[in-house]
Amino acid sequence: MYLILLGPPGVGKGTQAQFLIDDLKAVQLSTGEVLRAAIANGTDLGKKAKTFMDAGDLVPDEVILGMIHDKLEELEGKAVIFDGFPRTEAQAAGLDVELEKMGKAVDNAVALTIDDEVVVDRLSARRVHPGSGRVYNLLFSPPKNEGVDDKTGEALVHRDDDQPDVIRHRLEVYHESTAPVAGFYKKQGKLLEVDGDGTVEDVRGRVKAALKDLG
Ligand code: AMP
Q1: Which residue has the CA at smallest separation from atom 19 of ligand 1?
Q2: Residue 12 has pLDDT above 90, yes or no
Q3: Cα separation, 196 vs 173, whole angstroms
Q4: Nearest Cα to Cα of residue 185 among 101, 118, 85, 103
Q5: Which of 5, 128, 166, 191 gives 13 a disulfide partner, CB atoms 3.0 to 4.6 angstroms apart?
Q6: Residue 38: CB within 6 Å of ligand 1?
Q7: How far is the CA of 169 from the centre of ligand 1 (A)?
Q8: What does the pLDDT look like over 49-72, one tens digit per residue?
Q9: pLDDT value at position 160?
Q10: Where exactly are the structural domains of the chain?
Q11: Secondary structure, 3-state, 10-34
Q12: Four-point Cα dihedral 101, 105, 97, 171, nearest 10
C-alpha cells in the first residue's frame, strides 16, 4: 500500500503519519526527515538540500526524485506512508513512473486542510525529536518533561524553519507549488479531503473514517 499525506506545513501530517504506521502496519517516509538526516551526516544529498531548506524553499525535483528512487527500492514490499512528498506535480508524476516500474501504484492521497493563521500559531509551538521524527506541540501535545523526548529523554529542537517569517514563506510556497498536487490525485479519483483543524485525536478519527469509507 502506498498512501500520500498532503497538506500545508504544520497541519499535522507527521503526527497523523505516526498513527497510520500503527493502524496500517506501515512505514513512514518523510522526505523532510531524510533531508535533515542527510544534512546532519554531511552527505552530498544534504549539501545539495541545505540552502533551499534553510530558506524554506523547495529542494529541486530531480534531487527529491533521486532520493525517492533509492528509498522505494529500500522499502520494497512494505506499506509506505509518504509525508511531505510529493510537493509538486512533477514529483507526483515522477512517483507514478517509479511505482509503475515496480508494478505498483499510489492507493490514496489524504489531504488535511486548515487555515494559514492556525498553521502559524501551531508551528511556532512545534518541537521535534530529530532522532525519531516524533513531533510535539507545546499547545496541544507537550512532552511529559519539558524540552525532552518522552521515549529517549533526548533534547527536542525548534526547527529554524519553524520561525514565523519562514513559516509564512513556506505557506506561500505550499499554495503555489504543493496545493495543485491535490488536484493531481483528485483527477485520478484518489483524493480524500479531511478537515485538519481540531485536536490530534479528532483528526485521527476523521482520517480513519475517510480510509474506512473506501473499503
Ligand atoms: P518538512 O519537514 O516536510 O516540512 O520539510 C522541510 C523542508 O525540506 C521543506 O521546507 C523543503 O525545503 C524540504 N523538502 C522536504 N520534502 C520536500 C519535497 N518533497 N520536495 C521539495 N522539498 C522538500
Answers
A1: 85
A2: no
A3: 19
A4: 85
A5: 5
A6: no
A7: 13
A8: 999 999 889 999 999 999 999 999
A9: 86
A10: 2-26+79-214
A11: CCCHHHHHHHHHHHHCCEEEEHHHH
A12: -150
Q: Closest ligand 1 atom to the C-alpha of 161? A: 10
Q: How many C-beta atoms lie closer than 10 Å to residue 163's C-beta? A: 13
39 CB burial (10 A radius; 0-12, 13-18, 19+): middle
Q: Which three cell numbers stand for residue 29?
A: 517516509
Cell representation of residue 209:
473514517
Sign of CA dihedral 183, 68, 52, 32: positive
| Residue bearing cell 513556506 | 170
The residue to which cell 513531533 is assigned: 135
The beta-strand segments (E) located in the chain are 2-6, 27-30, 80-83, 108-113, 126-128, 135-137, 191-195
Q: Which element (helix H / strand E) includes 155? A: none
Determine the Cα–Cα distance for residues 162 and 141; give it in Å rounded to an integer. 17
Quick check: CB of 53 below 6 Å from ligand 1?
yes
CA of residue 215 to ligand 1 center, whole Å: 31
pTM recorded for the entire structure: 0.83
Gap between the Cα atoms of 143 and 162, Å rounded: 18
Buried b (16+ CB within 10 A) or exposed e, 110-124: bbbebeeeebbebbb
